[in-house]
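Final report, closing paragraph on structural work. Over the funding period we assembled a curated collection of sequence-structure pairs, and we close with a single example.
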Amino acid sequence: MDITIHSAFLPHTDHQASLAFYRDILGFEVRKEVGYNGMYWITVGHPDQPGTSLVLHPPAADPGITDDERRTIAEMMAKGTYAILTLATPDLDATFAQLESSGAEIVQEPIEQPYGIRDCAVRDPAGNLIRINEVN
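Its predicted structure, as stored:
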């Protein structure tokens, strides 16, 4: 089977803050922006990975989601338990220093995990947990 990851989805709650984080801090390119009724879908991706995108979408925009489900999603996003993205870098210390100096919300400084991965964690403006693994 010949199959690749084309796109993954993360919720976002603030169009401008999301652009500032993913474009300006992480250096992702903006591939598409779609607005509808005050909501925005933003497709971003690393310039060196043109075939893989991250779609930032309004949470609970699906009309089939109930008000109770919307409240649950909002509560989980606020706690950082709704969505997680894992990124990778060959230089975790330099990446962490850039994130820290940008004012990103730090969750965990670089650490060697007991399962053999060295990583750190931050939150994006919507509260999504972004883990960054060091890879060689």
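The CA atoms of residues 68 and 94 lie 42 Å apart. The first helix runs from residue 15 to 25. We thank the funder for supporting this effort.
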